[in-house]
């Protein structure tokens, strides 16, 4: 069993979120870039992640997939970095609340809205996000309360994961451009680890003729 961190990613994926998390931790890792339609669907990689998607992390004989789960795993695995409240810390509940809110209702609402497949109002109770508008309003409340971070003065993996949803959403216009979102994103983009991660991923982007 090896303690090496192996990070499977692609610069045009949610792997950017995990890259940022790794840079915040300042830990060593080995990057493996998986190509869409090629190595990502190869038998070797499908044995790691049967979904044939990135990101994925291998560490201590364990495979972790899904960006939110990877961020939470890394925060706990490298607890000395202080990116997750301890189990006995009351802030642990707030931290988990926003992590799961972004991975669940926010992700689902944004995807459904982009695909034009939002649940009609009379069937809103059948979906976890209720409505796109309500989900964005609650996300805005979280961003507006961030002072400067979701846990107050303490930056955490929740800012990495939930903040990435906001950052991506503003860039791709999949979430509304509201002052609270823009201000939080600006603080996130100013972090040195964010900038390092972005530079590393941008360097992997295919050249455009």
Folded structure, characterized:
With 209 residues, the protein is an alpha+beta fold. The chain folds into two domains: 6-81 and 195-204, Glutaredoxin (3-Layer(aba) Sandwich); 91-191, Up-down Bundle (Glutathione S-transferase Yfyf (Class Pi), Chain A, domain 2), CATH 1.20.1050. The protein is built from eight helices and four strands; from the N terminus they run E-H-E-H-E-E-H-H-H-H-H-H. It has helices spanning 15-25, 43-46, 67-77, 91-114, 132-145, 157-172, 179-189, 192-204, and strands at 6-9, 30-33, 56-59, 62-65. A four-stranded mixed beta sheet has the order 2-1-3-4, covered by helices on one side. The mean pLDDT is 95.
Key attributes of the depicted protein:
209 residues; Glutaredoxin; 50% helix; alpha+beta; 4-stranded mixed sheet; 8% strand
Secondary structure tally, helices: 8
User: How far do the termini sit from each other?
Assistant: 44 Å
CATH class of the largest domain: Mainly Alpha
Q: Helix content range of the residues, please?
A: 40-55%
Question: Helix and strand layout, with pairings?
Answer:
Blueprint: E1 6-9, H1 15-25, E2 30-33, H2 43-46, E3 56-59, E4 62-65, H3 67-77, H4 91-114, H5 132-145, H6 157-172, H7 179-189, H8 192-204
Parallel strand pairs: 1-2
Antiparallel strand pairs: 1-3, 3-4
Helix pairs in contact: 1-3, 1-6, 1-8, 3-6, 4-5, 4-6, 5-7, 6-7
What's a quick, concise take on this entry?
This protein has 209 residues and is an alpha+beta fold.
């Amino acid at each position: 069993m090896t303690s090496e961190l192996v990070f499977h990613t692609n610069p045009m994926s949610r792997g950017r979120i995990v890259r940022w998390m790794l840079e915040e931790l300042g830990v060593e890792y080995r990057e493996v870039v998986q190509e869409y339609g090629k190595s990502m669907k190869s038998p070797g990689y499908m044995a790691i992640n049967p979904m044939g998607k990135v990101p994925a992390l291998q560490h201590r004989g364990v495979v972790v997939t899904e960006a939110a789960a990877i961020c939470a795993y890394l925060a706990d695995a490298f607890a000395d970095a202080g990116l997750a409240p301890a189990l006995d810390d009351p802030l642990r509940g707030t931290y988990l609340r926003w992590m799961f809110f972004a991975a669940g209702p926010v992700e689902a609402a944004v995807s459904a809205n982009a695909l034009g497949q939002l649940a009609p109002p009379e069937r809103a109770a059948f979906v976890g996000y209720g409505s796109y508008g309500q989900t964005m309003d609650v996300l805005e409340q979280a961003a507006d309360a961030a002072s400067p971070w979701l846990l107050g003065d303490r930056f955490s993996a929740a800012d990495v994961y939930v903040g990435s949803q906001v950052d991506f959403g503003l860039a791709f216009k999949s979430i509304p451009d509201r002052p609270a979102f823009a201000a939080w994103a600006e603080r996130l983009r100013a972090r040195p680890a964010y900038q390092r991660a972005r530079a590393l991923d941008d360097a992997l982007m295919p050249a455009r003729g």
